[in-house]
């Protein structure tokens, strides 16, 4: 009989490994492929025989065939090998194992992780060996690896523990905040930055959302922005930019006439924008009603009377002027009040036929003013007026309105 071929697996330490000390040089060139062919044929026939045995009617026919072929093969091989006195292991027929000589063949003693007649088949340990639940088994040639899932580290068998990816300071890139999570990590951006394409923190251009005051210029900065009031405005640039009124000396004159407009009352109110603030003064053509009424000799040269100075250049102010037509002819009286508190009473000559209809008049003129209005361009010079109210009514009652108009834009 010819060779018996071992199919079992052994480890290197298996004592069956016994190197043959009697290597015969003459047979070193025995064709290894030929040997394998022979073995494979035998194996094939064995398998055929197994199948055939299931089919009763063919058992005999096949058995005969197998026996015949077996004998033919065996004979040739045995003959050839026995003729040549083969050294079976000389060509190292075992891929991943040790060859052991036998009288009529050889054994392959496989190294761990390999199996097959010639130890040519990798054992898929992953089918039998259990890795850690958070690990994947990776079958490799002759072995296997339990690899912890991404985000975990450990031997893959006993342990797979979370990796703190944030220990790598560069993992999230610049301007970011790394947060470790179980099995992963999360990158978010510091204030003023946002995730651009899922990984990088890019600067937010805050200026696109117009965060500054209308009269300020916005400058985008890394992670931030700045606001600067435009020229001639001052303020923090975010919540306020007030016109930087320099007090340029501009002046307005409020001259009030009589209700019918046929005559002028001697009212002359002047408003100056000065560096120290706004000045309001009046020029009266007569010192006061009492004097004129008594002397009946009022002078016409104007005398200036300051009502208030140093008013804030940036805010709205309010002035109220009443003309009271007095019963004695040729002299009347003006009352002034600025911002509800600065008052002055002056004389006035109301040269009219005001008694034509036999009434005493009260003549009210109220207005708001400031030298520059923050809602307008700073380069605009002069005063702005708003909320002008004009009314004439019978002095016996302000309910008895003779004439009235007003324009109102705001409170
Ligand atoms: C399995 O391990 C080998 C060797 O380390 C490696 O090259 C291969 O990528 C691994 N396969 C998988 C699916 O992890
Ligand atoms: C990751 O960060 C984003 C913001 O960048 C946040 O919306 C999300 O909830 C975070 N996820 C976790 C798991 O922390
Ligand atoms: C994300 O954006 C950065 C810079 O804007 C760029 O360098 C990087 O290639 C981008 N990554 C992807 C995945 O698009
Ligand atoms: C932006 O700048 C302002 C003013 O300098 C500062 O108060 C604020 O903390 C900055 N914000 C950030 C996110 O740096
Ligand atoms: C504001 O006006 C003052 C003069 O009243 C001037 O000295 C100052 O430079 C001005 N400031 C700006 C920002 O224009
Ligand atoms: C009116 O003017 C005269 C002349 O200037 C002055 O003597 C008098 O005191 C004044 N009377 C009142 C009430 O102001
Ligand atoms: C003007 O007259 C009105 C109505 O009589 C009165 O309410 C107001 O206080 C007067 N103003 C001044 C400055 O006298």
TrEMBL record:
<keyword id="KW-0732">Signal</keyword>
<dbReference type="InterPro" id="IPR009030">
    <property type="entry name" value="Growth_fac_rcpt_cys_sf"/>
</dbReference>
<keyword id="KW-0964">Secreted</keyword>
<feature type="disulfide bond">
    <location>
        <begin position="110"/>
        <end position="119"/>
    </location>
</feature>
<dbReference type="GO" id="GO:0005509">
    <property type="term" value="F:calcium ion binding"/>
</dbReference>
<keyword id="KW-0106">Calcium</keyword>
<keyword id="KW-1015">Disulfide bond</keyword>
<dbReference type="Pfam" id="PF12947">
    <property type="entry name" value="EGF_3"/>
</dbReference>
<dbReference type="InterPro" id="IPR049883">
    <property type="entry name" value="NOTCH1_EGF-like"/>
</dbReference>
<keyword id="KW-0677">Repeat</keyword>
<feature type="disulfide bond">
    <location>
        <begin position="89"/>
        <end position="99"/>
    </location>
</feature>
<keyword id="KW-0812">Transmembrane</keyword>
<dbReference type="InterPro" id="IPR024731">
    <property type="entry name" value="NELL2-like_EGF"/>
</dbReference>
<keyword id="KW-0245">EGF-like domain</keyword>
<feature type="domain" description="EGF-like">
    <location>
        <begin position="122"/>
        <end position="161"/>
    </location>
</feature>
<dbReference type="InterPro" id="IPR000742">
    <property type="entry name" value="EGF"/>
</dbReference>
<dbReference type="InterPro" id="IPR001881">
    <property type="entry name" value="EGF-like_Ca-bd_dom"/>
</dbReference>
<keyword id="KW-1133">Transmembrane helix</keyword>
<protein>
    <submittedName>
        <fullName>Fibrillin-1-like</fullName>
    </submittedName>
</protein>
<feature type="domain" description="EGF-like">
    <location>
        <begin position="203"/>
        <end position="242"/>
    </location>
</feature>
<keyword id="KW-0472">Membrane</keyword>
<feature type="transmembrane region" description="Helical">
    <location>
        <begin position="45"/>
        <end position="70"/>
    </location>
</feature>
<feature type="domain" description="EGF-like">
    <location>
        <begin position="85"/>
        <end position="120"/>
    </location>
</feature>
<dbReference type="InterPro" id="IPR018097">
    <property type="entry name" value="EGF_Ca-bd_CS"/>
</dbReference>
<keyword id="KW-0272">Extracellular matrix</keyword>
<dbReference type="Pfam" id="PF07645">
    <property type="entry name" value="EGF_CA"/>
</dbReference>
<feature type="domain" description="EGF-like">
    <location>
        <begin position="162"/>
        <end position="202"/>
    </location>
</feature>
<dbReference type="InterPro" id="IPR051145">
    <property type="entry name" value="GAS-SHBG-PROS"/>
</dbReference>
<dbReference type="InterPro" id="IPR000152">
    <property type="entry name" value="EGF-type_Asp/Asn_hydroxyl_site"/>
</dbReference>
<keyword id="KW-0325">Glycoprotein</keyword>
């Amino acid at each position: 009989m010819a060779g018996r071929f071992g199919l079992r697996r052994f480890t290197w330490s298996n004592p069956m490994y016994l190197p043959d000390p009697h290597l015969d040089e003459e047979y070193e060139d025995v064709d290894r492929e030929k040997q394998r062919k022979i073995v494979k044929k035998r194996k094939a026939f064995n398998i055929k025989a197994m199948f055939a045995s299931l089919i009763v009617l063919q058992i005999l026919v096949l058995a005969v065939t197998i026996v015949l072929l077996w004998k033919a093969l065996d004979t040739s091989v045995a003959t050839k090998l026995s003729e040549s006195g083969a050294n079976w292991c000389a060509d190292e027929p075992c891929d991943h194992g040790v060859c052991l000589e036998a009288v009529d063949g050889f054994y392959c003693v496989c190294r761990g992780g390999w199996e097959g007649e010639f130890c040519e088949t990798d054992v898929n340990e992953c089918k039998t060996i259990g890795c850690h639940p958070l690990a994947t088994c990776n079958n490799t040639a002759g072995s296997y690896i339990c690899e912890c899932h991404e985000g975990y580290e450990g031997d893959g068998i006993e342990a797979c523990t979370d990796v703190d990816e944030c220990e790598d300071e560069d993992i999230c890139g610049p301007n970011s905040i790394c947060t470790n999570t179980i099995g992963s990590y999360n990158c978010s951006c510091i204030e003023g930055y946002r995730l651009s394409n899922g990984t990088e923190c890019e600067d937010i251009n805050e200026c696109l959302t117009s965060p500054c005051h209308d009269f300020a210029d916005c400058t985008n900065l890394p992670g931030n922005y700045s606001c600067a009031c435009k020229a001639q405005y001052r303020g923090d640039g975010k919540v306020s930019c007030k016109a930087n009124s320099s007090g340029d000396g501009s002046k307005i004159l409020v001259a009030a006439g009589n209700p019918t407009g046929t005559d002028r009352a001697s009212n002359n109110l002047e408003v100056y924008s000065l560096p120290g603030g706004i000045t309001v003064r009046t020029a009266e053509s007569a010192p006061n009603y009492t004097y004129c009424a008594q002397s009946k000799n009022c002078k016409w040269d104007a005398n200036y009377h300051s009502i208030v100075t140093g008013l804030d250049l940036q805010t709205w102010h309010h002035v109220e002027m009443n003309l009271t037509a007095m019963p004695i002819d040729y002299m009347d009286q003006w009352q002034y009040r600025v911002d509800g508190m600065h008052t002055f009473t002056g004389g006035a000559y109301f040269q009219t036929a005001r008694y034509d209809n036999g009434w005493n008049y009260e003549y009210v003129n109220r207005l708001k003013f400031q030298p520059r209005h923050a809602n307008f361009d700073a380069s605009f010079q002069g005063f702005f007026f708003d909320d002008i109210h004009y009314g004439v009514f019978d002095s016996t009652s302000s309910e008895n309105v003779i004439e009235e108009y007003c324009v109102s834009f705001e409170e």
